[in-house]
Design brief:
The complex is a heterodimer of chains A (about 625) and B (about 375). Chain A is about 35% helix and about 25% strand. With about 625 residues, chain A is α/β, with parallel strands linked by helices. Chain A folds into 3 domains: about 90 residues, Roll (Ubiquitin-like (UB roll)); about 150 residues, 3-Layer(aba) Sandwich (Rossmann fold), CATH 3.40.50.280; about 325 residues, no CATH class. In chain A, helix 12 runs parallel beside helix 15. Chain A is globular. In chain B, the strands form 8 sheets. In chain B, strands 2, 4, 13, 14, 15, 16, 17, 18, 20, 21 and 23 form an 11-stranded mixed sheet that branches. Chain B folds into 3 domains: about 70 residues, OB fold (Dihydrolipoamide Acetyltransferase, E2P) (Beta Barrel), CATH 2.40.50; about 130 residues, 3-Layer(bba) Sandwich (Glucose Oxidase, domain 1), CATH 3.50.30; about 60 residues, SH3 type barrels (Roll), CATH 2.30.30. In chain B, about 10% of the residues lie in helices and about 40% in strands. In chain B, about 45% of the residues are buried. Classes of the chains: A alpha/beta (about 625), B mainly beta (about 375). At the A-B interface, helix 1, helix 3, helix 4, helix 9 and helix 11 of A face strand 6, strand 11 and strand 28 of B.
């Protein structure tokens, strides 16, 4: 159901995250939709409150208070007796309330396939695209013994299982064998023992009867279309839709307070608006940007527990999403340290710190995940950890988003088979147009310069790339809002959500520090000209306003290149932003920091000063 | 804004506890409503399904899955031993020459036979599992076939982080003050079977000594991250703990590093020195928060078992708070103001802050996110 601006004049949208419930107010003002106010409160899905709606009420109360202050109107009210007043009547009530959710660990799934890198990965892609965390992929050829697979299935306790396998008319035996293993494990759902575990079968249609015979008594079996009907084609839509249906019908019903929340989310005519898994909503918005502007996009959402990376690449807009389930800035912060190692974190820190102090600080953040860095030193450390979390998550994404698995891509059978051995990543930083960051550490960084620094250091964009940030982490809200009003979602997205930070120019190749690397001449919109021969190992930041461009002449030295055609000279328009244009001559492929500590700290300070990342006193 | 929500850990000298003790699978409840139980009593038991062993019988016999039906000697539900013949063929020309038979690799039961894959699933014998009461109390509800709800009145402390499973023992206060760091000399035979209380910190060699002397559990203000790694043999990535088998349970009340134990926690433990307590280190910080618990049962009448509705710890002027991040980590202060507007702190982050006053009269401004309410 969709509504126009006559029906929707004031909307509250919330995202119930694992740590925080974030609420935004969207109002139709002077002929356009704008996001006007935000509020937040700790999520209350867990003990002692065990009711997600309490956090929603708290966040909405903050919205109400701030709205009264902003509009200088004490009569504004969105809720009464702990429930939304819908539709709006003057100062009182809202026209719609919508929400996304990743609280309670989000949607956790297990997937099965016959060949891990074929139907298995297609199933994984369907689950990830629907917003799930894939706890494990179990396939006939995954090298575990069958009894080990059964033990694994029994111990996982997912919210649901997605089973794929066999093209239509292909193998039945292997698909049924996998069903037998699931049946033998007799898996139980994660939340509640009063219902059977939902299992979606989206494999070879010829095997449906055997699958029913094997599984129908033990699980809640749902049959849908084969998600890999042919070796060279994926059909992920029906399986994704089923995942969303079951998420609403089964999983959300079990989470504390969600029964009530599901009744609250409704439009002006009191029709329900389904709650969407947060990553699915972010994916919605990411794809909209790529298609609308015909660009290649990478988006990242770094949360407390997980980091999601989304990308849209190639002329066919192939969409991929990965979830790094144990890389995050609070619950999982300790795992970032374990995965990246202390040395990799410390390489970004421009001062000495006692190792034991740092380790204990990280662990304390893990056990008290809602605290925020009040001291500057702690902020620098958290941002160093964020760079490593982002780097690791992006590495995982590049590996998963491979060229041979896109559903729009037509390929012959030999290509389809070749994916089991290798699949070149379709993530090409040289052709990437836009890198969008979101999630607390990027969106709420005290200085936008810090966001630019984190994005560049973690993703190492190549050639010319625009950088943006989701201003207050609104992408989930807008993803679900687009279900009832694409106009409201896109207007708010362009005007209030996306903050363009600027552009990064990074020549690719290696060279010695201090050698000539890049000649840059930038004619800026205010008439001034920046011109410099920049040596290798430097960063320059040239202010250039949002919405303006600079006419640039770029010439590289020492074999460095600027685009996928290996150009060494380019005349281009560079987009400005609230930070500006960054010229980064630290090299790519490889990107190396000085290995000697004193030297490294000297350079880190220099780059951070140039980027205005931190106050001068910490960088002297 | 007069008040705001803030997270906090419960530390109280008297609370009505209500604990579900549920079997992992349906089974038999061994107690009835109204029964008084001790922590060590078994209240429910069940048999977990045995391990499933998949076995490709058709392959073993050298026939196709569809042919298997002709030779199979078992059906689903049959009990089997290692001597049971699962299938046999009749040999060459049906004369028994080169006859082959396949015996069961395990004892147990036949779960399933597949004519599509030729695979049989054999299930090993069931594994008995018992659930103990864990706390002294009274059974107030029996959930048929699943478990019980036990209630009692207790002094109760939630820890921030722990390792190790449920255990019980007598509390033994070793620290003189909340900021004490006990030395090895204090651990001796008298600590055997006890739950020892240290002050702000316990170093690795003292933990090792406690383990050697048969200490059941340690309650400490802080612990070093690297000491945990040494104890477990691995680094904790995501805080989901409680099932470690290291010979004792550790509950940390404040966090990592050397941190003075909150005075209220320390005083409470001191007050109950020598009393029996139930303790566990189960911690789950992500999705479905579980914190370690120290439960000291008190004498009670049944009519006292009326639990208060869970409420939000509230921040208001006069609320006592504990600071849970640098600077002043671990210090206690009293809220003096709750300004509404966002305020820039040293890290330049714009946050909602509160103003608070320490005992000595000095005042601070600190992010609201970095405090816990101390409930009175």
């Amino acid at each position: 159901m969709q509504y126009d601006e006559k029906r929707l004049t004031r909307i509250v949208a919330t995202d119930c995250g694992s740590t925080t419930t974030k609420a935004i107010l969207i109002e139709y003002v002077d002929g356009e939709y704008r996001q006007t106010i935000r509020g937040e409160a700790p999520t209350t899905v867990e003990a002692p409150l065990n009711d997600v709606t309490k956090g929603v009420i708290n966040a909405t109360q903050e919205l109400e208070e701030l709205a009264r202050l902003k509009h200088n109107n004490p009569n504004i009210k969105f809720m009464e007796n702990g429930e939304f007043i819908i539709p709006r009547n003057g100062d009182v009530g809202v026209d719609a309330y919508v929400s996304t959710s990743s609280a309670g660990g989000g949607l956790q799934m297990m997937v099965t396939g016959v060949v891990a890198s074929m139907t298995g990965e297609s199933a994984e892609r369907a689950a990830l695209g629907a917003g799930a965390i894939v706890m494990d992929l179990i396939a006939s050829n995954d090298k575990r013994m069958n009894h080990e697979k059964i033990e694994r299935i029994r111990h996982l306790r997912p919210d649901m299982i997605l089973m794929a396998g066999g093209e239509d008319g292909g193998t039945i035996k292997h698909v049924v064998e996998m069903a037998e293993l699931v049946s033998g494990a007799d898996p139980k759902p994660r939340l509640g023992s009063s219902y059977k575990l939902p299992v979606i079968y989206a494999g070879n249609k010829e095997a449906i009867n055997e699958i029913k015979n094997t599984l129908a008594d033990k699980v809640d079996l749902i049959i849908t279309e084969n998600l890999r009907p042919k070796l060279d084609a994926e059909n992920l839509g029906p399986a994704r839709d089923k995942i969303h249906d079951i998420f609403m019908e089964h999983v959300m019903q079990q989470a504390p307070g969600y029964n009530k929340l599901m009744e609250w989310t409704q439009g002006p005519d009191l029709q329900r608006v389904p709650i969407m898994p947060t990553p699915a909503a972010v994916g919605n918005i990411m794809q909209t940007i790529a298609k609308d502007e015909q660009i290649e996009v990478v988006g990242v959402d770094i949360g407390g527990a997980t980091t999601d990376v989304f990308s849209v690449f190639t002329e066919e807009y192939v969409f991929n999403r990965t979830v790094s389930a144990n890389l995050g800035m609070s619950y999982s912060i300790s795992n970032v340290l374990a995965s990246s190692g202390l040395t990799n974190i410390m390489r970004w820190v421009p001062f000495d710190i006692n190792e034991s102090e740092l380790r204990n600080m990280i662990k304390n953040k893990m056990i008290r995940p809602t605290t925020i860095p009040s001291l500057l030193e702690e902020l620098v450390l958290e941002q160093a950890i964020a760079k490593e979390a982002l780097r690791l998550a992006f590495e995982q994404h590049k590996e998963f988003a491979s060229s041979l698995k896109g559903m729009q891509r037509q390929r012959d059978i030999s290509e389809a088979f070749s994916q089991s051995t290798s699949g070149a990543s379709i993530v090409n930083l040289m052709t990437l147009d836009l890198l969008v960051g979101s999630g607390g550490v990027l969106s709420h960084a005290p200085r936008r310069y810090q966001t630019v620094m984190m994005l560049i250091d973690a993703f190492l964009p190549e050639g010319i790339t625009r950088l943006a940030v989701d201003s207050i982490f609104m992408m989930p809200h807008l993803g679900v809002l687009s279900e009832i009003s694409p106009r409201a979602a896109t207007e708010v997205f362009r005007k209030d959500c996306m903050v363009y930070l600027g552009s990064c120019v990074a020549p690719v190749g290696k060279c010695k520090y201090g050698k000539p690397a890049l000649y840059a001449k930038l004619e800026l919109p205010d008439g001034t000209v920046f011109e410099e021969n920049i040596p290798f190992g430097e960063i320059r930041l040239i202010p250039c306003e949002v919405g303006k461009t600079a006419k640039a002449t770029l010439k590289t030295s020492s074999g460095l290149i600027l685009d996928e055609n290996k150009a060494k000279e380019l005349n281009v328009e560079l987009h400005g932003g609230i930070v500006g244009i960054v010229l980064d001559t630290r090299g790519r492929q490889p990107f190396n920091l000085p290995s000697e500590k004193t030297e490294r700290i000297k350079y880190l300070k220099k780059w951070m000063q140039e980027l205005k990342a931190y106050p001068e006193d910490i960088l002297v | 804004m007069g008040q705001a929500y803030s997270a906090g850990l419960t530390v109280t000298d008297s609370i009505v506890l209500r604990k579900e003790r549920i079997l992992p699978l349906k089974g038999k409840v061994l107690v009835t409503k109204g029964t008084k139980v001790k922590a060590e009593d078994v209240v429910a038991e069940t048999l977990l399904p045995g391990k499933v062993v998949p076995f490709n019988l058709a392959n073993k016999l050298g026939v196709t899955p569809t042919q298997l039906e002709k030779y199979i000697k078992i059906k689903a539900g049959d009990q089997i031993t290692k001597k049971t013949i699962l299938a046999e063929n009749s040999g060459l020309f049906g004369l028994g020459i080169f006859r082959s038979e396949v015996r069961s690799p395990v004892e147990g039961e036949v779960e399933n036979i597949s004519a599509v894959t030729g695979q049989v699933l054999l299930r090993e014998p069931r594994i008995p599992v018992q659930v103990r009461a864990f706390l002294d109390g009274i059974i107030t509800e029996v959930i048929p076939d699943e478990g019980v709800i036990i209630e009692n009145k207790s002094a109760y402390i939630q820890g921030i982080f722990g390792i190790g499973d449920e255990t019980t023992g007598e509390l033994k206060m070793l620290a003189e003050t909340p900021d004490d760091e006990i030395d090895a000399g204090k651990i001796d035979e008298s600590c055997k079977g006890k739950i020892i209380i240290t002050g702000s910190f316990i170093p690795f060699h003292v933990i090792e000594l406690a383990r050697k002397h048969g200490v059941k559990a340690i309650i400490t203000g802080g612990i070093d991250d690297q000491d945990i790694k040494k104890l477990l043999g691995y680094d904790i990535g995501v805080a989901i703990t409680g099932h470690e088998n290291i010979g004792l349970t550790i509950v940390c009340t404040e966090g990592f590093g050397k941190i003075t134990m909150a005075k209220k926690t320390f005083d409470l433990l001191k007050q109950f020195d020598g009393k029996k307590a139930s303790i566990h280190g189960h911690t789950q910080i992500r999705a479905g928060v579980i914190r370690p618990e120290i439960i000291i049962p008190l004498a009670f009448e049944e009519n006292e078992l009326v639990s208060k509705e869970a409420g939000l710890p509230v921040l208001e002027i006069g609320t006592l708070i504990r600071i849970i991040r640098q600077p002043h980590f671990g210090s206690i202060a009293k809220v003096t103001a709750l300004p509404e507007e966002l305020t820039k702190v040293e890290s330049e982050t714009l946050v909602r802050i509160l103003e608070a006053e320490f005992d000595d009269g000095t005042r601070i401004r600190i992010p609201r996110a970095n405090v816990e309410v101390i409930e009175s």
